[in-house]
Amino acid sequence: MNNIDTLEETIIKAKQGKQIAFSRLLDMFWNDVYGFQLKRTENENDSEDITIQAFSKAFDKINTYNDSYVFKTWLIAISKNIHIDLVRKRKRSLLDTRSNSDAITSALDATPSMEDQLIQEQNLADLLRDIKKLKPHYQAVINLRYFNELSYADIAAQLNEPINSVKVKLLRAKKLLSEIIKERK
């Protein structure tokens, strides 16, 4: 991909599964989505988490993008829906555990996702075999994060990629790995 690709050309390349197109879209729109969420949540961690989830969901569903809409608006709408779901989930958790302050504290902590739980339940030999089914760039990020226990920043430095790209790539790798595990069961 060259630097003169238009947004439309970049989206077409993303729909074809070209990783560099995803990276370019992330670079182009990260600040817009993150800034929108920062205004809504007034919390940097929540804003970053929601933005990562929004890009992951958008990239997973890139083929459903309709070019009669503005791409940035589509991304922000996805992030807005993720934020709404998060707020509802937290309210439900707080209402369910109102009498127990420890439970309230733990409800606000980042709990493992369904993908994380599924991955943790696997036998190591089975898990390693399943990881080998992923594309090499997903294998690398999974290995660095979970087997070498590197931080996002360390992974970004080792792969020479922006930290936000690493976070999105890891989220996508976990989703793909969980799908492989589910198919095997």
Provide a descriptive summary of the structure in words.
The protein has 185 residues and is mainly alpha-helical. It folds into 2 domains: 1-108, RNA polymerase sigma factor, region 2, helix turn helix motif (Rna Polymerase Sigma Factor, Chain: A, Orthogonal Bundle), CATH 1.10.1740; 112-185, Winged helix-like DNA-binding domain superfamily/Winged helix DNA-binding domain (Arc Repressor Mutant, subunit A, Orthogonal Bundle). 76% of the residues lie in helices and 0% in strands. It contains 10 helices and no strands. The chain has helices at 7-15, 19-41, 44-60, 71-96, 101-108, 114-120, 124-131, 136-147, 152-159, 163-184. α2 crosses α4 (71-96), α6 packs across α10 and α8 (136-147) packs across α10 (163-184). The relative contact order is 0.10. Residues 103-110 have low confidence and may be disordered.
Characteristic key phrases:
185 residues, single chain, mainly alpha, globular, 2 domains, Arc Repressor Mutant, subunit A, 10 helices, 76% helix, Rna Polymerase Sigma Factor, Chain: A
Low-confidence stretches: 103-110
- CATH fold assignment of the largest domain: Rna Polymerase Sigma Factor, Chain: A
| Total beta strand runs | 0
Q: What class do helices, strands and sheet pairing give?
A: mainly alpha
Q: How can the largest sheet be summarized?
A: none
Total helical segments: 10
Principal-axes shape call? globular
Question: What does the radius of gyration come to?
Answer: 18 Å
Q: State the order of secondary-structure elements, H for helix, E for strand.
A: HHHHHHHHHH
